[in-house]
Amino acid sequence: MDLFAFPPFAFLLDTTYRTLMGLSALLSPVAGAASAALAIVIITLFVRAALIPAGIAQARSEQVRMQITPRLREIQKRFRKNPERMQREMMQLYRDENTSPLAGILPALIQAPIVGLIYAVFLRSIVGNHPNDLLTEHLFGVSLGTSLVGSAGAFSVETAVVFGTLMVLMAAVAEVTRRIFRPAVPAEPDASPLASGGVQRALGFLPYLSVVFAAFVPLAAALYLAVTVTWTLGQRWVLRRRYPLE
Questions:
Q1: Of 228, 183, 207, 235, nearest in space to 53 by CA
Q2: Does residue 98 or residue 39 have the better pLDDT?
Q3: pTM of the model
Q4: Which ranges constitute the DSSP H helices of 4-155?
Q5: 48 and 228 in contact (C-beta within 8 Å)?
Q6: What's phi and psi for 134, nearest 5 deg?
């Protein structure tokens, strides 16, 4: 079943296409053949700038959750034999402090459909009953609709260089993110369900998922991912200094 056969999704896809084409046309005198790629970068920056308030709310929530960890630990000890009561008390504490254990998920939820739309646009030869001219756009000789894995049969030096550069950048950002923002482990093991060593190690490698994902998506989506993870690192660094966890 093709979701984009339904009018609402088809409208979103066509709107994404027209936005990219319009911005690309505006940038063409400046960026030339790379105008579509630059349009994707600008859209990414616009989306991330619009999400700054959500990022601030996330940083505040992280700070509050760290501050209430001792109280959460006390609730867990007190109601250890009554999980239902323990859950109610913990959620009440979150409400009292105007935070949530899921705070911070909003930026990811908003960006997921945007990446999905960019991904879908560059997979289709026809969008809105007209040819997809974005598939003729390139970045340093590589079509924006090409994926690293999908080009295995027609691999080129240009493809290797462009994707390699983006993936090395994303891997470097992931490593810096892992080192700087390693989740804090509470002193007592029952303080958090995330405190086990195995879970902590798994969380430490989550930033690298974007690198893996970039190998399978069109170059346009990989470019979006590279810009957004770089922005995220810078934003988290600034906000962590403003809202320290210690």
A1: 235
A2: 39
A3: 0.81
A4: 7-31, 35-50, 52-67, 69-78, 83-96, 106-121
A5: yes
A6: -65, -25
Alpha-carbon gap, residue 88 to 231, rounded angstroms = 37
Q: Would you call 30 exposed, middle or buried from its count of C-beta atoms within 10 A (0-12, 13-18, 19+)?
A: exposed
Chain mean position to CA 68: 27
Domain range list for the chain: 3-242
The amino acid occupying position 107 is P
CB neighbour list of residue 68: distance below 8 Å, 6 or more residues apart? 93, 94, 97, 99
**Which pLDDT does position 25 carry in this prediction?**
95
Are 210 and 26 in contact, with CB atoms under 8 Å apart?
Answer: no
- Which residues are CB-contacts of 129 (< 8 A; sequence separation ≥ 6)? none
Has residue 207 got a pLDDT over 50?
yes
Phi, psi for residue 130 in degrees, rounded to 5:
-140, 155
CA–CA separation, 170 and 226 (whole Å): 6
Letter string b/e over residues 116-145, b meaning 16 or more CB atoms within 10 A of that residue's CB? bbbbbbbbbeebeeeebebbebbbeebbbb
Q: Is the dihedral of CA 206, 197, 184, 178 positive or negative?
A: negative
Contact 126, 132 (CB under 8 A): yes
Higher pLDDT, 106 or 148: 148
